[in-house]
Fold each of these.
Amino acid sequence: MRNLHDHKSALGINTATFGYRSPIEATIDLCASRGVGALTPWASELKGGNIAAVARRIQAANMAVPALCRSEYLTAGNAESREKAVAANCRMLDMAAELGAQSLVMVVGGLAENSRNLEQSRAHALKGLEQLLPHARDVGVNLALEPLHPMTTADRSCLNTISQAVDWCELLDPDGAGGIGIAVDVYHVWWDPALEASIAGAGGRGRILGFHVSDWLQDTRDLVLDRGMMGDGVIDVRGIRGMVEDGGFAGCVDVEIFSAERWWKTSESETLDMCLERLLSMC
Ligand code: ZN
């Protein structure tokens, strides 16, 4: 397992951690000033802007772009909407390519509206990914499937465990040609009794594309926007990093904290300093 003190280029920040308060240019400059090694922006921060200029600014600051966040949902209840979502995600892949991002984070969508047919929503998500994979390969951006905590199954993601994500990768890319893999986010997967075995399985197939860190607060008050700083909650973040690195992952450790009441109300520079301190001491 890497000693992050010797791998500062692996210290990454997902811009959501700052609560989208400043333009992306200011966020890039702030992260650059602290020697951050990688930045993961959100598409909403780039829309309507000059993406090539943003890419140059990130590159000039010697930061990698592990991923662009994130896909549109693939599980709408009618075929027309699902086709539109595929087209929108193709455009998102183009945006990721222009940005120089290695992956597009795929949050696949939950149950279709007014549906109780979870199996069907999962089939639609899988079909959408199948349609996207050739374009992802064409533009050189990986589809990083992010399993989300089961509490999100109804509204955000019917892809819920690493093991399920491994199965989908194998179905879509049985020969291991690439272009598709998994983003492991500790907040979503820490509870899974099969975590170690399924991360090992994903690693064995070279499928781990991203690693996101935050913490689960014991007294969490919101299941989306009350993520904790690493070390403030109950997740063995370092233990899980050991698992993904044992599985061959050598990429960035990206802090991704949605925290409407705490960190989004703290100054961005203070939040960043705490992230970097905790990356080294708790992750
Ligand atoms: Zn994540």
Amino acid sequence: MRKPIVVGNWKMNKTVEESKKFLVEFLTFSLNKGVDVVICAPYTSLGFLAENLRNKNVFIGAQNFHYESSGAFTGEISADMLAEQGVKYVIIGHSERRQYFAETDDTVNLKVKKALDSAITPIICVGETLEQRDNGETNSVIYTQITKGLKDISSDDITDIIIAYEPIWAIGTGKTASSKQANDVCSYIRKIISDIFGVEISNKIRIQYGGSVKPSNIKEIMEQSDIDGVLVGGASLVAEDFTQLVNF
Ligand code: PGA
């Protein structure tokens, strides 16, 4: 049985002060213990959140990092720096990073390897544009992103990785993929994993859906056979909404 995982992606939202306000409210709710809960916050809030959520069964994630260990990379942050702040997860290859910050499948692959080396769980994002979907290219886009992103990853490491299917046209648009559309692609991702690593491993890896997930649609999404969790932007910013997602 794969343990469900609900991940909030705060993107470039919340100062430390605002993170504190979120936490005060969030800690008044009780959370479903059978679900892994992760908050991916801006760098400035990571240490504060990790410190205050220790022993609360909520883990902290980052939204990006550099694949090199150290050096002349002005403005970047390393995996070790994140780990030192208490970070346990990192989002890699989010479509916004691919679109605005020149992230490629090759840099995704380098980052996946570096995260694994640093004992940080990678959450690899893949997804097609609306144009690609309309042209019937969804599966080929996903295939390329997955196989390149996972290049040279061993079968020992693969089950430590989480894959998030996020159709770009559903992110922040209020347009959710239908649960069947989402599950079809998540099943296809599991099939790619099965072809590379075998069926047993493919049944262990966790695959999330992301894109306009909210309290009103979480139940139906989580009922799908190949969806093991969600990656949530907008609805993760409000403590009560995020709690409802965790307690789906
Ligand atoms: P959204 O974002 O939930 O606001 O659509 C999802 C994401 O970008 O991870």
Amino acid sequence: MMVCLGNICRSPLAEGILQSKISDEHFVDSAGTGDWHVGQAPDKRSIQVARNYGVDISGQRARQFKPSDFKEFDLILAMDDSNYDNLLKMAETEEEKNKVRLILTPGEIVPDPYWGDERDFENVFQILDEATEKIAAEYNLK
Ligand code: 4NP
């Protein structure tokens, strides 16, 4: 489960890129900690940069992270420290807390490209491409 703030820029990309690298046996999803964009398709710039690399995320629709996701998913990956803190606050048990980690190493974040331009989305794509490669290897998802 990939989590960012709005579920329209970063986490839809993270979902699409990871799913494109691994088998369909593994279900990848994404959500936002906020609810402003619920029901919306990903940001056009995320759809475009993914398309440039052969990944189609246009069918995704934003949703808000919900408490039952802690039970549904084995691994919950936050894009930045704020997403991470919000998830830890929502977690009710140690088991739930232990499922949450940053998608990058501590101290490194996936920068929010929402107020940026195409170059920021390209940068996010590259960061997530590398990060999801490591996740797929670490958790034997291929
Ligand atoms: P995301 O980007 O968290 O990567 O989906 C954002 C999208 C929308 C907003 C902030 C970040 N917003 O403030 O509406």
Amino acid sequence: MYQESLYQFLSQKINDRNIPFNEEESITFLMRISSNFDVIHHLYLTIYQDHPKRSENFSLLTEILIDGFLKRPQQLRQLDAQKKGGMPWFTSSELVGMSLYVDRFCLDLSDLRQKLNYLLELGVNFVHLMPLMKSPQEASDGGYAVSDFRQVEPRFGTMAELELLVSEMHSKGMYIMLDIVLNHTSDQHEWARRASAGEEQYEQYFYIYPDREVPDVFEKTMPDIFPDSSPGSFTFDVQSGKWVMSVFNSYQWDLNYTNPEVFVRMLEHILFYANLGVDVLRIDAPAFIWKKIGTACQNLPEAHTILQLIKHCVQSVAPGMALLGEAIVAPAEIMKYFGTGSFMGRECDLAYNATQMALQWDALATGDVRVMMAAQRELLKKPLGTTWITYTRCHDDIGLGYDDSMIQEAGFQPMRHREFLKAYYSGQFPGSPARGALFGVNPKTNDARISGTLASLCGLESALEKNQAEDVELSIRKIILMQAQSLFIGGIPVLFYGDECGYLNDYSYQKDPSKNYDNRWMHRPAINWERNQYRLQKGSIEFQIFSKTQKLIRIRKGNSIFSDTANLVWLSMQNIHIAGFKRSVASESIICLFNFSDKETGLTWYALKEAGWPEQTKIKDLWSGLEFQVGKDDQHLVFQPYQFMVLVKN
Ligand code: GLC
Ligand code: GLC
């Protein structure tokens, strides 16, 4: 809706800033901001209409947007322009990612520059650096408790080194993802310190109460996120004698987004990251940013409005930076992070496909893909032009967050099914080869999640202990099967560092008091570069896993069909052990089939015929190189335990 006064307001602000109107980039910026401005205004008012300081903060927001553009470096403006046109750049099959801790993967930021070639050797060209802004070493939650959003943690290096790394990555054709920890700050952040000292302006940045009255009401409906290590959602702050909301760890104080000043100042940080050259901004824990008494304080409509507002601001200033919403929530909820109604496709550009990730673990434990299949109807609703981050492991635990109805649809009893999965992966189930641990055990709800590295959960740790060559081989097959599905299903696959060489659980965190309360550290290894050299030694475990991962990546990058153009259909299930989908563009198609069971099993050729490949079609498996011909309906294509195939017409 055109509002004249609003445009006069914008024009005035622009004139005040002396934007050089003769430059093409300035003109495109003016066009972008003008076309987004009333949506920005509308979304802003949806949240802050009744706030006494709404006007001054809106004015500040407008200035920050204009400054954000003025400060945007020339090369980044050019990159913005290059990324435009066609399907969004982040849907491309050319992208393959890795997530890593700078100080655990190598030494620091400058050492990481020396390691870029290692990533490229593997085929990784998209890197998620785990949080690297300043964070108290003893109370850091792996960097997710930020004490300064603008300074790199000194152990990792300097801002100048970060800038150098980003420009070197860009010059090598690589992309970078960084976090903005939106929901909370460290209790050591200046805002928190000043709030704790009783400065009213900063008290309003957080949820702070003089006694337990309001916290008790909130806590009635707020689930515990870290029930064992940090139960409850409030912390007593000794200095102020008050109670502070801290949904995650007690040292992570929740920011209060009902205060527009908080929004505006965090948006300023977002644009600062954009101007560092971030390609994808990972918005940490967005599901939690709005709180309301009487609710779970997750996934509330206002949280979506704030994300849409961020999207439109970023779109105006730094259109080349995409947004990833790190919401690890139920399948129906996750869809909403891509935007709903008239905002469909205009909220987050990417989200984690945590449901698919967890369902792959489900299928691997049960050898049965029916629950995975039951969830797909929901997952296929993702709008065109948005995409997933696909993954098998990350720095967090594996939550079994899919719906009970999906488990039921597959014919299982939800409670017992989840109990089995937890027992299986924590190694308690008799005969289970998995070596993981339960995380976030909540005796009240019987809920728990799972920690452990890809390799240990796939049985490599126990196989090596028992010195069983056959089991070692089987575990490697499982590892590659899991990675294969994540690489071919659509979205940016993001590997977790260490998994490319089969790192096992690292139990040393148990001796470190800053980590021992959080067993997610068991799957955050410190890389031993001498060991990673074994990737070049034929026959070693590192070699097998690394070279197979490399090959999967080559297959993905070599076939643009794997770009996410919403071109996936699941094949109807002809065998409960085998999941299969077809990806196609025009008359070309690739069929991927994954056997999740530990037994040899056969798929009747009818399955391929039904997928549109008739009898006698000549086909080839890009993975094994084997060639076949589609046989009769009642004959079988045979799969070895955990075998998968990537079939093309030959
Ligand atoms: C996200 C991070 C997780 C962290 C939490 C709190 O979920 O992935 O590691 O503990 O946010 O910041
Ligand atoms: C919860 C949150 C998720 C976070 C995780 C950290 O599951 O929903 O966002 O990654 O905790 O362990």
